[in-house]
Design a protein that fits this description.
Blueprint lengths: L1 E4 L5 H9 L3 E4 L7 H7 L2 E6 L7 H6 L5 E4 L9 H6 L3 E4 L5 H16 L2 H11 L4 H7 L10 E5 L3 H12 L3 E5 L5 E8 L3 E8 L3 H7 L2 E4 L13 H6 L4 E5 L8 H10 L2 E6 L10 H5 L3 E3 L8 H22 L1
Parallel strand pairs: 1-2, 1-3, 3-4, 4-5, 6-7, 6-10, 10-11, 11-12, 12-13
Antiparallel strand pairs: 8-9
Amino acid sequence: MKVLAINGISEKGVQIFKKAGFEVLNKKVASEQLPDFINQNQVVAIITGSNTVIGKDFIDACPGLKIIGRGGSGFSNIDLKYAQNKDVTVVNTPFASVTAVAELVFAHLFSGIRFLHDANRNMPLEGDMRFKDLRKSYAGGRELRGKTLGIIGFGKIGQEVAKVALGLGMKVIASDETVREENIQLEFFGHQNISIPVKTEPLHQVIRQSDFITLHISAQKQKEPLIGEVEINAMKDGAGIINTSRGGIIDEDALLEALEKGKLAFAGLDAFKNEPSPGIKLLMNEKVSLSPRTGGITIETRERINVELAEKITAILQDEI
């Protein structure tokens, strides 16, 4: 049986398939040519990312397809219900990028509190002529230790963010759809462990009490942004906000206004409302640290995704043999 990996696959992933007796086709195929390629090559499983749309027509056109493997979390590009009705199994890797996303949160936090995003723009242009002036303008940085981090969305990623924050000596408060207490396990060298309980609180309290806020919620059911003008006005003066979750969660117009008026000190954005064409005002704002949806993309994440999908798909196919 053949497995098609249209976005590439690591050698570890390939070896898992080969050891189980499956052939891997590591080939980039245009979306409009995919159904024909799958049928002609008798492909039973496909590994894809978020860019390939797999809807009803696609599934109907590939009657021999048994499994769709989606790297990362979510199924936004796949008609999950229809696939299940057609007995096509859909699997993903929801936890493979947890560490990568959590670490990017702090990359943006450190960038924001120490003006690194802006300094990296200006130093190449003026560092040789205005070194002392730039040093003075960036001298008002802050430290994270002792500050309160509000985590909105306390799933696996939110909990991983809490681990890093607690390790840095920050105070952590969290909000989630369900009220619960999670024991955050901190692991240190020599197999030393500390367990710190964090109980979720109402959203308005997290917004009001936090020095910095980071968002980690799944796709929204409501159409309105979770963080709008009202919520921003309720935040502490000089607070910062990070979004590595979903575009549209923050009202970007309200965010820009708050940054321009000094209500908020900075923002760190890895997700935007109008992807892949974010608003130019956001991109040019000197108080915004930016990244192009790279939260879950690292060398280690890609390896975990490949291995996890290979293990899941081979287990399912072997059960069917």
